[in-house]
Design goal:
It is a single chain. By secondary structure, this protein is mainly alpha-helical. Helix 21 links the parallel strand 2 and strand 3. Helix 7 crosses helix 17 and helix 14 runs antiparallel to helix 18. The radius of gyration is 23 Å and the shape is globular. 43% of the residues are buried.
Length: 458
């Protein structure tokens, strides 16, 4: 057995150990937290018939691929929150070997590939979104896998890898609208490498085909959205009250270090991010013609486009919360951090190591701390245990009402008509099996009235 084969086996064994660690970290608390509003939208949309999902009866801005997968998963009879979320754990775990392969393709160094895989495995951001019944874990996997196929396709004479790139990219854009931004980044990369004319022509061809195949969803989205309600409604809080620079900074920290309710953790995360960014930029300016910079070009391009374009859209028309919509940038941040460890004559390896340690600390804090999401499951259980025959339950916003449609097992619970921040037309709530009541109707429903207020949505 030669040294190359031995190194490969050792690297794969190390990757296997990383996957075991990642599995333990993700499975440990997967069912601990209740489904919150967005997760309830996923759950309820997946309960609809396939044609209703494809025709966007739920009035969602998100394309249907994730909802379809969740629909078929739920038809197997899974019940508890932990089991319902298992596909998201699976996509999060599958991302790790893809990041490893992508790093190996970019940098040709097994050590860097293992570092990138380890950063994804222990990242509190990735662990949190492996517990989120939303499309972000799937999106990160599809984007990373599609770019791996793209890089392999550029070196290939046949269409096999180009077909793989096109199929994965198609599934990505039918998972999340902003996956189109990654295609934009790929187009810029192909133009910057235009000396490879064959690869440029095939990239353009695949891009045009993808846009044509995505056109039906664009027409559905534009036909059903409303200004005040639905998928493209403006947020009540608006984006004009927040500094775009501050939103940009907090997004980077969020994608690397996740949520935290500990001030000291957030302070350390801010310090490490700023320190690493300043040193990294200075180093890139000094060695901008190096091979490492060329290897970093695609990850940096993806990060720049995936974060800057949504931030700009948010500043102009805030119809979404930008942080989680930029999830596709998170794996590429891990790639750039891994590559930064090669700068031996700078503080970068130490800053990356410190960042990895802080990520591990953040993961431990997330696992041992109180749940972050609102306790809607516990609220539903409490009301169910204490309500008496003839009682009615009124929700002041869909923030608690949609989770209630997931958890309650009793009748006479409805949503107050005139929610201060309605996110769906009446027909959507009715498709989910819900009811809208006026205040007078609520008072006539029973002898006593329970009122549920979701503070974060009211």
């Amino acid at each position: 057995m030669n040294s190359s084969t031995t190194a490969r086996i050792r690297s794969l064994l190390a990757l296997g150990a990383i996957l075991i660690l990642a599995t333990v970290l993700r499975v440990a608390t997967v069912g601990r937290e209740s489904l919150w509003f967005d997760e309830s939208v996923s759950y309820l949309t997946a309960q609809l018939p396939v044609w209703s999902i494809l025709s966007n009866v739920a009035n969602s801005s998100h394309p249907p691929f994730y909802y379809l997968l969740l629909h078929f998963w739920q038809t197997t009879g899974v019940r508890g929150d932990a089991l319902i979320r298992l596909p998201d754990v699976f996509w999060s775990l599958l991302l790790i070997p893809v990041v490893y392969a992508l790093a190996l393709k970019l940098y040709s160094r097994r050590q860097l590939a293992l570092i990138a895989a380890l950063l994804v495995a222990i990242s509190p951001f990735h662990i949190f979104y492996s517990h989120e019944l939303r499309m972000y874990a799937l999106l990160m996997f599809l984007i990373s896998a599609s770019l791996l196929a793209y890089l392999k396709a550029r070196e290939s004479d046949g269409w096999r890898w180009w077909l793989a790139f096109g199929l994965l990219a198609l599934l990505a854009i039918y998972t999340h609208l902003f996956a189109l931004i990654v295609l934009f980044a790929v187009g810029i990369h192909a133009l910057s490498q235009r000396q490879n004319q064959r690869a440029l022509r095939r990239t353009v061809f695949v891009g045009v085909v993808l846009l044509l195949l995505f056109l039906p969803w664009v027409l559905i989205l534009l036909g059903e959205s409303q200004y005040d309600l639905g998928s493209l409604r403006p947020l009540v809080q608006g984006g004009e009250q927040e500094l775009v620079f501050l939103k940009l900074l907090t997004t980077f920290i969020f994608l690397l270090f996740g949520y935290s309710t500990h001030t000291w953790y957030s302070g350390l995360a801010l310090f490490l991010f700023l320190g690493t960014s300043v040193v990294y930029v200075m180093e890139m300016l000094k060695v901008r013609r190096s091979k490492i910079e060329s290897d970093d070009a695609l990850p940096l391009l993806v990060i720049t486009c995936v974060i800057s374009i949504p931030i700009t859209i948010y500043a102009l028309r805030p119809f979404f919360l930008p942080e989680r919509t930029m999830a596709a940038a998170a794996p590429f941040l891990s790639l750039v951090l891994a590559c930064a460890t090669t700068r031996r004559q700078t503080p970068l390896p130490y800053l990356v190591a410190a960042s990895g340690i802080l990520m591990a600390v953040g993961t431990v804090l997330y696992i041992v701390s109180e749940p972050i999401k609102p306790p809607y499951r516990e609220v539903a259980n409490f009301v169910g245990e204490h309500r008496m025959p003839g009682d009615a339950v009124l929700h002041t916003s869909d923030g608690s009402y949609l989770p209630a449609l997931r958890y309650v097992s009793f009748d006479d619970h409805g949503l107050l008509q005139g929610d201060p921040d309605p996110r769906k037309p009446r027909a959507v709530y009715e498709a989910y099996g819900g009811e809208l009541w006026t205040l007078q109707e609520a008072g006539e429903r029973g002898r006593r009235l329970w009122v549920v207020v979701a503070r974060e949505h009211s």
